[in-house]
Amino acid sequence: MTLDEIKDILDAETLSAHCDGNTPVERAYCADLMSDVLCFSFTNSLLITHLTNAQVIRTADVANIKAIVFCQGKKPPRETVVLAEGKKIPMLVTGYSMFDSCGKLYEKGLRGKSESDT
Fold it and tell me: Least enclosed by CB within 10 Å: which of 21, 59, 77, 118?
Protein backbone atom coordinates (compact mmCIF):
# COMPACT_ATOMS: atom_id res chain seq x y z
CA MET A 1 0.00 0.00 0.00
CA THR A 2 1.25 3.53 -0.72
CA LEU A 3 0.94 6.74 1.28
CA ASP A 4 -1.48 8.05 -1.37
CA GLU A 5 -3.68 4.99 -0.91
CA ILE A 6 -3.58 5.45 2.86
CA LYS A 7 -4.49 9.11 2.43
CA ASP A 8 -7.49 8.15 0.27
CA ILE A 9 -8.68 5.36 2.57
CA LEU A 10 -8.54 7.63 5.62
CA ASP A 11 -9.78 10.78 3.84
CA ALA A 12 -6.62 12.32 5.26
CA GLU A 13 -4.92 15.66 4.82
CA THR A 14 -1.18 15.76 4.14
CA LEU A 15 0.79 18.03 6.46
CA SER A 16 4.19 17.43 4.90
CA ALA A 17 5.57 19.36 1.96
CA HIS A 18 7.92 16.50 1.06
CA CYS A 19 5.41 13.63 1.27
CA ASP A 20 5.97 11.19 -1.60
CA GLY A 21 2.61 9.56 -2.18
CA ASN A 22 4.24 6.62 -3.94
CA THR A 23 6.14 5.60 -0.81
CA PRO A 24 5.26 1.98 -0.01
CA VAL A 25 4.01 1.05 3.45
CA GLU A 26 3.84 -2.64 4.34
CA ARG A 27 2.91 -2.52 8.03
CA ALA A 28 1.18 -0.32 10.56
CA TYR A 29 1.41 0.16 14.30
CA CYS A 30 -0.89 2.23 16.49
CA ALA A 31 -0.02 3.55 19.93
CA ASP A 32 -0.06 6.57 22.18
CA LEU A 33 2.71 5.22 24.39
CA MET A 34 5.96 6.08 22.67
CA SER A 35 7.78 3.46 24.74
CA ASP A 36 5.56 0.86 23.03
CA VAL A 37 6.47 2.28 19.63
CA LEU A 38 10.15 1.86 20.48
CA CYS A 39 9.64 -1.71 21.71
CA PHE A 40 7.02 -3.14 19.38
CA SER A 41 6.76 -1.21 16.10
CA PHE A 42 8.28 -2.23 12.79
CA THR A 43 10.98 -0.44 10.84
CA ASN A 44 9.55 1.47 7.87
CA SER A 45 5.97 1.14 9.10
CA LEU A 46 3.12 3.60 9.52
CA LEU A 47 2.46 4.97 13.01
CA ILE A 48 -1.15 5.78 13.90
CA THR A 49 -1.54 7.93 17.02
CA HIS A 50 -3.51 10.62 18.84
CA LEU A 51 -0.39 12.32 20.17
CA THR A 52 0.80 15.43 18.37
CA ASN A 53 3.81 16.55 20.41
CA ALA A 54 7.42 16.67 19.23
CA GLN A 55 8.23 13.46 21.12
CA VAL A 56 6.19 11.53 18.52
CA ILE A 57 8.57 12.72 15.81
CA ARG A 58 11.66 11.95 17.87
CA THR A 59 10.34 8.47 18.60
CA ALA A 60 9.41 7.89 14.95
CA ASP A 61 12.90 8.92 13.92
CA VAL A 62 14.58 6.50 16.34
CA ALA A 63 12.17 3.68 15.40
CA ASN A 64 12.56 4.30 11.65
CA ILE A 65 8.85 4.95 11.18
CA LYS A 66 8.03 5.74 7.54
CA ALA A 67 5.04 8.08 8.17
CA ILE A 68 2.64 9.19 10.89
CA VAL A 69 -1.16 9.45 10.88
CA PHE A 70 -2.73 11.68 13.53
CA CYS A 71 -6.30 10.59 14.37
CA GLN A 72 -9.51 12.44 15.24
CA GLY A 73 -8.53 15.53 13.32
CA LYS A 74 -5.73 16.39 15.74
CA LYS A 75 -3.12 18.60 14.15
CA PRO A 76 0.37 18.89 15.59
CA PRO A 77 1.74 22.22 16.78
CA ARG A 78 4.22 24.12 14.63
CA GLU A 79 7.19 22.79 16.64
CA THR A 80 6.19 19.22 15.75
CA VAL A 81 5.65 20.04 12.07
CA VAL A 82 9.04 21.77 11.81
CA LEU A 83 10.78 18.82 13.48
CA ALA A 84 9.05 16.31 11.18
CA GLU A 85 9.96 18.35 8.11
CA GLY A 86 13.59 18.40 9.23
CA LYS A 87 13.61 14.64 9.67
CA LYS A 88 11.59 14.10 6.45
CA ILE A 89 8.83 12.15 8.21
CA PRO A 90 5.53 12.52 6.32
CA MET A 91 2.46 13.36 8.41
CA LEU A 92 -1.22 12.84 7.67
CA VAL A 93 -4.30 13.90 9.64
CA THR A 94 -7.57 11.97 9.53
CA GLY A 95 -10.90 12.73 11.16
CA TYR A 96 -11.39 9.04 11.92
CA SER A 97 -10.79 7.57 15.36
CA MET A 98 -7.78 5.34 15.90
CA PHE A 99 -10.05 2.29 15.95
CA ASP A 100 -11.76 3.21 12.67
CA SER A 101 -8.47 4.20 11.04
CA CYS A 102 -6.93 0.84 11.87
CA GLY A 103 -10.05 -1.00 10.77
CA LYS A 104 -10.22 0.76 7.42
CA LEU A 105 -6.55 0.09 6.69
CA TYR A 106 -6.81 -3.53 7.83
CA GLU A 107 -9.86 -4.01 5.62
CA LYS A 108 -7.80 -2.83 2.64
CA GLY A 109 -4.92 -5.21 3.42
CA LEU A 110 -2.49 -3.26 5.62
CA ARG A 111 -1.34 -5.45 8.52
CA GLY A 112 0.56 -5.09 11.75
CA LYS A 113 2.39 -7.80 13.63
CA SER A 114 1.64 -11.38 12.73
CA GLU A 115 2.27 -14.68 14.51
CA SER A 116 5.29 -15.33 12.27
CA ASP A 117 6.95 -12.10 13.49
CA THR A 118 7.50 -13.36 17.05
Answer: 118
